[in-house]
Design brief:
Two copies of one chain form a homodimer.
Chain A: H1 3-21, H2 30-40, H3 47-58, H4 63-85, E1 94-95, E2 98-99, H5 101-105, H6 107-128, H7 134-148, H8 153-163, H9 170-195, H10 200-227, H11 230-233, H12 239-242, H13 248-271, H14 280-291
Antiparallel strand pairs in A: 1-2
């Protein structure tokens, strides 16, 4: 399949919906709405929301039902980037080649813009999802919240902070990343399936796929931080090493890391063995996650 | 009615449920869970969650249906206190007589604990509400999110920050506070009603009640900051003046502020004229909000 064409098309759909669900720039007070839009509309590959649409399509659903949840996942991803970049956390000045939110709008507004995006995510799922049974939408709200909060991203970020400067073994690293980045990626795919009425067996398969690409994604991120091209990445290469962050290459070397990413990719593809060609987008995205250069 | 007995009883119920819904302290990684519990279990009057229970009871509902939402509202209130106290925002060292979250756990953990509590709120509503139609629970999720995010609390806080050091008139002050503190109080009462199947007319009445006490609550807060007792308040009196915050006493004087609080109280009580004695708790709480000393 033409993956680039698929990604470009879905990216346009997602971008238009994000623009619709975000409060307009002149929604007073102005600065927080500008800050929300600044970070969300900065681009990015929209991999997470596209996974939600593709997860929905893989079981024969209409992507329209999944679009609000797809955008919610992107709002949550963006909120996490804004807060992670703050001086008290990673203290990053640039993201995707642009100054980070707190550099442009100040720390207070960056904190609040993140809070508002996290909240907007749940408003978007609950308020904009149509043609889906309310029980299902509620289950999606619950799944997205769990993947974001105390079973997922935020607690994973806290674990990551607590591990800084400590000797971290492979199991601990996997446990941190399965929550920090894996849980939301897995939820993105699974919720797409839920919204199209997938069976429990199909949801389990989509979960396994999500775990596989989540892990492959993180390892590839770590590898790119060592061997990547700063211009393509939009951030400085080598920042993990300078910050003494625990990474896969640091713990097991580059070669073994690449092998592990390949194994995770294979597991993701295996999980889709019961799906027909409607899951080809998910398959192509899995390969793209490992082969990308940025 | 015996308001103190009612408040004590409902406070115990809310505290037990908060304890149940919060992740246990040893849920790894430890610091973020300790930080979440530290701020939530610090006490406070639990006015907002009790309003949710009382709103439910006022239309004849079982408070059990409203308990998860009541706790969610308290989680959101606590999240907002943690983030508002941060150095980049109000930079407060004490809250309820105790060191603020970032003073105990550091800024990074305080930011993340707030994020996790905000997320936990939606997880709690979606995952723990029983014996209520899914459509209704979804409507509650949407209402709570709207009152928290871009139509409510977070955007009100942003407006408050932007107004600092500027001349603020009464209309602007009301607009800031109706979002910053009023929206969540109103949502607390209205969601209680929703969860017990209130009619649209009843919900409108509960909204009007919520707006009335929300305004009365804020004016009373401002007045207490001028004439209150630091020991009872658990915070330093006069901090609004030192921070040059726009307040009702600063704009219209103490006497007029007290009159406006009284008018808002009357409006709240009038809104309940169609309710029977099951709304007596709401009536007593409204009077308490204006007459309290802390």
């Amino acid at each position: 399949m033409d993956l680039q064409g698929y990604l470009d098309d879905r990216c346009r759909i997602v971008d238009a919906a994000l623009d619709e669900y975000l409060p307009p720039e002149d929604h007073c007070p102005s600065a927080i709405c500008r800050a929300m839009r600044y970070s969300v509309m900065q681009g990015g590959k929209r991999i997470r929301p596209i996974l939600t649409l593709a997860g929905c399509e893989a079981v024969g659903g209409d992507q329209k039902s999944a679009l609000p949840t797809a955008c919610a996942i992107e709002f949550i991803h963006t909120f996490s980037l804004i807060h992670d970049d703050l001086p008290a956390l990673d203290n990053d000045d640039f993201r995707r080649g642009q100054p980070t939110s707190h550099r442009v709008f100040g720390e207070a507004m960056a904190i609040l813009a993140g809070d508002a995006l996290l909240t907007l995510a749940f408003e978007t799922i609950a308020g904009h999802t149509t043609d889906v049974p309310a029980e299902t939408v509620l289950r999606v709200v619950n799944r997205v919240a769990t993947a974001t909060g105390t079973e997922g991203m935020v607690i994973g970020e806290a674990a990551d902070i607590e591990s800084e400067g400590k000797q971290v073994d492979l199991d601990t690293l996997r446990s941190i990343h399965s929550r920090k980045t894996g849980a939301l990626i897995e939820a993105a795919v699974v919720c797409g399936g839920m919204l199209s009425g997938a069976s429990e067996a199909q949801l389990n398969a989509l979960s396994a796929y999500g775990r596989g690409i989540g892990l492959a994604f993180q390892i590839t991120d770590d590898i790119l931080d060592v061997v990547g091209d700063s211009a393509k990445l939009g951030k400085t290469v080598g920042s993990d090493v300078r910050k003494k962050k625990a990474t896969y290459p640091a713990i097991m070397g580059l070669e073994k890391s690449e092998e592990l990413a390949k194994t995770a990719l294979d597991e993701a593809l295996d999980a889709l063995s019961g799906f027909d060609e409607r899951a080809d987008a998910l398959r192509a995205i899995a390969r793209f996650v490992v082969e990308r250069e940025s």
